[in-house]
Structures are given as structure tokens and as C-alpha cells.
Amino acid sequence: MIGYILDAQGSIVSALVFDDEPAEFTPPEDHTLVMGGDYAIGGKLVAGVYTAPAAPAADPLPPPPPPDSCTKLGLKRAFDELGNWAAVKAAIAADAAVQEEWDLATEIRRADPLVQHMIAVVGLSDEQVDQLLIRANALV
To answer: How many helices (H) and strands (E) does the chain have?
Structure first.
């Protein structure tokens, strides 16, 4: 047999299982023992009316951090979608050192001076760079 301990406001704070009637059990002060029923801890039982406990609020997972790198192909495609690839490509080609860096790179990292150069050419904000890298990774 199941018994439920209710506090003074009728909140169900505990459940107990008894073999027989709880002849010798005394609930804590300001608490009541109610036998039987199908209740949940956290619910309320007031004047014989049961209210189930509220579902716990889902803890939304924080969004993942933006990627800090991408492939050259992904970055090219993302710049293409923005309509900026021609300007970026021209800026790369205009500087032999930048062109060599681009040609030799296997991965493009956000903190890399090459990427910072591209960002400056196009004039992107940090949020726009986040979105650019997210999109670049999605395109490959």
C-alpha cells in the first residue's frame, strides 16, 4: 500500500510503501499522511483534488560556438553567395604574399592573417564572419 506525505499546503513531498496499514507511522509535524491513490511527488492534493506537478522546463542547449576554420572551397562558395568572391579573389591576387598563403593553405582559420585580410577587404562584422564560417562549413 502506498502512502503520500503532504505538507501544510498540500504539496506531495514524499511517497512511502507499507506492507499493511501504517499503524505506527506518524508523519512529521505540519504534514499529513494520505493512503492510496496514484500521485507524483511535487504534485498537490487539496480537498481531494489532485494537481500533477508541472513538467520541468527544458534546459535548451546553448548554440554551438561558430567554427573557427573551414576549407578554401567552402569559404569561396560562401563568399560567392554573398556576392563578394570577386573582390576577395582580386585582393588575394593583388598581393603575392597573400596569394602564396592562399595557394599553400589546406585549412582556413579565422585568426589567420590571410582570413583577417579577406575580412578587412569585404568589411564584415564579427557576427557576419561567424555566419560566413558556419555557411562555408555547410557548403562542403
So the answer is: 5, 7
